[in-house]
Amino acid sequence: MREPPRPVTAAFDDAEIVRLMAPLGSFRNLLLAVSGGPDSTALALLVARWLAIGPAPKPGVIVVTVDHGLRLESAAEAAPVARL
After folding, report:
1. Is the pLDDT reported for residue 14 higher than 70?
2. Higher-confidence position of 4 and 32
3. Are 77 and 37 in contact (CB under 8 A)?
4. Which of 22, 36, 54, 66 is most buried by its number of CB atoms within 10 A?
5. Cα of 62 vs its chain's centroid, Å
6. Residue 7 gets which letter from DSSP?
7. Per residue in 29-83, pLDDT tens?
8. β-pair type (60-65, 29-34)
9. Which residues contact 80 (CB under 8 A, 6 or more apart)?
10. Of 13, 2, 15, whose CA–CA distance to 54 is shortest?
């Protein structure tokens, strides 16, 4: 039986981050396209934490900022990603 989805307010602990990200450890490199919206920013922060705590080998990671232009706010959201 499948587990119910976690509540949105639940945080991942380090062990869960390592477990969830483990399949990505087999790649040599990863490219993250981050628009600055909450979901892609959370993904970038999750990957950063995984790189800090996860076991070797770890892929190289390149993060690019994407202004997808889907909403009026997209340019303003993309700008802080460069600083992050």
Report:
1. yes
2. 32
3. yes
4. 36
5. 11
6. P
7. 999 988 888 888 889 999 999 999 988 889 999 998 878 788 888 888 888 877 7
8. parallel
9. 36
10. 15
Q: Report helix angle 14-21 to 38-53, nearest 10.
A: 100
The pTM for the full model equals 0.76
Strand boundaries in 1-84, DSSP class E: 29-34, 60-65
What's the confidence (pLDDT) of residue 82? 75
Tokens coding 82: 């460069």
Question: What residue type is 28 in one-letter code?
Answer: R
**Residue 30, CA atoms < 13 Å, CB-side half-sphere:** 20
Rg (C-alpha) for the chain, rounded Å, is: 15
